[in-house]
Amino acid sequence: MHEMGITQSILDASFTAAEKAGATRITEITVSIGELTEIVDFALQFAFESLTPGTMAEGATLVITMVPAKSLCRDCDIEYFHDRFEMLCPTCGGLNIEPLQGREMQIDSIEADDDTKE
Amino acid sequence: MHIDLAKPILDRNERLAAENRIRFDAAGVFVLDLMASPGAGKTSTILATIAALRERYRIAVIEGDIASKVDAEKVKAHGIPAVQINTGGACHLESDMIKRAVDTLALDELDLIIIENVGNLVCPTDFNLGEDAKVMILSVPEGHDKPYKYPGIFQISEAVILNKIDTMPVFDFNEEEFNGEVHTLNPKAPIFRIAATKGEGVAEWAEWLSARIDAKKAAAGAVAKADVDASDGGAA
User: 3-class SS at B146?
Assistant: First the structure.
């Protein structure tokens, strides 16, 4: 539901970066999304396809890297991957845990061209 | 050409949230982001919390709704400052909306700000507002299976309020299962059982909140005192 606003934030930051680099067209945007966030990848793709026509990112590809959730058990000193439902340490079942990754919402990179030079 | 960005998508929201937080910290005001579905009893819980804490703390409320001033009017009727934010369709509050609302409040004259987020169990989860704690309410009629359906909000909340416990006899709500689900998703979150409109169980929740407000005030006081001591030292 909030993917439209999130996609607009992705595009705004990408346009700014591309223009600053002297590019006129964006061909690809790569983002990392943690699996513990409420962002749904297909909704992000849908919003991207809806918002890009008529912009410098028209026809661009959105590459979404989903980041799995990982935590550290401070008692066992082990790192483990988990889904969003079972976060407890798989070894001791304890809750002295620290989330390490899974809440990412990051624009990693963009691919851009300067069409005017071709 | 390849351009590396490594930039948070919600960069602007995060920056404004950090700015809000600096203002809240400087004023020593504790800020609560209260989240729940529409109809779970956010406003009733806020009114019950105000009744329990208004003798001890100076309170203001920021009401987030898609439209209308209904909630802010209800809070104001109790003599508590309230600011209404209308998101005009947006499904969650963002930190710039909070900044504009806070600009209209006398922060130095407050101990607690309660933000009532837009009724939604999904979108508010991903947006920092600069708050000290996110807390969610689930009401008994919504059903005990909600933690499985909306895990994100249960994980991000520091405490879970179970409201409308007085309706337990008429709904098929398995409280044991609910507690187990919440515990699995968020082992550290306490669950407060309340019936907001009847005042039942509100005291325990208010005590938890009160401890957090006091801790924040103590921290702000310690910083202010250190500043005074440092400037005294400089003068001597």
Answer: helix
Domain containing A108 equals: 3-68+102-117
Check if the beta carbon of residue A14 is closer than 8 Å to that of residue A29. yes
Q: B-chain residues within 8 Å CB-CB of A47?
A: none
**In-domain check, residue A85:** no
Query: Are A1 and B123 in contact (CB < 8 Å)?
Result: yes
Domain B11-213 has CATH 3.40.50.300: yes
Chain B interface includes A105 (CB < 8 A): yes
> Number of A:B CB contacts under 8 A?
95
Helix (H, G, I), strand (E, B) or coil at A14: helix
Residue B226 main-chain phi, psi, to 5 deg: -60, -40
How many structural domains compose chain A?
1
Asked if A109 reaches chain B (Cβ–Cβ under 8 Å), the answer is yes
Q: Which member of A1, A84, A107 has the closest CB to residue B91?
A: A1
pLDDT one-digit tens code per residue, B77-95: 999 999 999 988 788 999 9
Q: pTM (2 decimals)? A: 0.86
**What ipTM was predicted for this assembly?**
0.85
